Amino acid sequence: MIIVFGSINIDLVARVGRLPRAGETVLGPGYDVIPGGKGANQALAARRAGADVVMVGAVGRDGFAAAALAELAAAGIDLSHVSRVDAPTGAAFIAVDAAGENQIIVASGANAAVRATALDALSPAPRDILMLQWEVPEAEILAAARWGRARDLRIMLNRAPAGPISAELADLLDMVVVNEHEVLALGAGLGVTGEPDAVAAVLSERHGLAVAVTLGPAGALCWADGIRHESPAYPVEVADTTAAGDTFCGALAAALDRRRGYETAVEFAAAAGSLACTAFGAQPSIPHRSAIEAAAQVLADQRNPDHRRLTE
């Protein structure tokens, strides 16, 4: 089982010809209202990748709440631990340009009311996975990690948006997932500088955790137990990169929940993240397990062509 402790948002998404510079207004033809939030996105990605998922978070009592939860409910995610609070449902304001790149502003709203004490109602099994992100209060993230460690859970943190974490939190984690820019901010906060690959290797060794780094069109790498694993991206035509990182995280958690090793789990996650770039919007773009498995098999065959020939 995977427990996701994190944010639930509604995304207001506008397509534009190019992203605005500071102080500039750029016109778009319209906008879409799409469920999102890093916690919710990762929960849906893990569920579509085949895992049983519980979502712990908060929404408001406003009209956006039902829309923010709709895809999660349809996927069969356990939402009984999502609180209703007297604050507006979290919202993200997203601009996506013609190349699929984006700019995002997040208004926390109800996500600021998420509390780690909500986890006390759960009875997880040892080695279940607890997924954390950085769109709920920092103190609650640390409290959730302590809760998970006391129950022998595997704890995964996606440190996004970018920034440092405390050494205490790093030592509670089993895995951190960041992109090539976020890993530098993470490393700087823990006294490690250098190129993304080298920073990931040092953090992994120093804190005894796996460090996965997404590299956009170059794929992903992961340092764990002194071993470097890597996977190229699955080749796609990019429409929108908004949920690629969240999809990678959810698919990675789902693969690890099925007791896959890091090599095949990173490959599976890289395939999922690539597929998420082929459709517009966060949650609508998240792929299902069958599509991910097919794309991951292509990557596996590229990694080991001799095995492919033997099995054809």
What is the strand and helix layout of this fold?
Elements: E1 2-5, E2 9-15, E3 31-36, H1 38-48, E4 53-59, H2 64-75, E5 78-84, E6 90-96, E7 102-107, E8 129-132, H3 138-150, E9 154-158, H4 167-172, E10 175-179, H5 182-189, H6 196-207, E11 210-214, E12 220-224, E13 227-231, H7 244-257, H8 262-275, H9 289-303, H10 305-311
Parallel strand pairs: 1-4, 1-8, 2-6, 4-5, 8-9, 9-10, 10-11
Antiparallel strand pairs: 2-3, 6-7, 11-12, 12-13
Helix pairs in contact: 1-2, 1-7, 7-8, 8-9, 9-10
Walkthrough of the structure:
- By secondary structure, the chain is α/β, with parallel strands linked by helices.
- It has a single domain (2-8, 38-89, 116-311), classed as Ribokinase (UDP-N-acetylmuramoyl-L-alanine:D-glutamate ligase), CATH 3.40.1190.20.
- 36% of the residues lie in helices and 23% in strands.
- The protein is built from ten helices and 13 strands.
- The protein has a nine-stranded mixed beta sheet with strand order 5-4-1-8-9-10-11-12-13, sandwiched between helices.
- Helix 1 packs across helix 7 (244-257) and helix 7 runs antiparallel to helix 8 (262-275).
- The longest helix has 15 residues, at 289-303.
- It is globular, with a radius of gyration of 18 Å.
- Mean pLDDT is 93; it is low at 307-312.
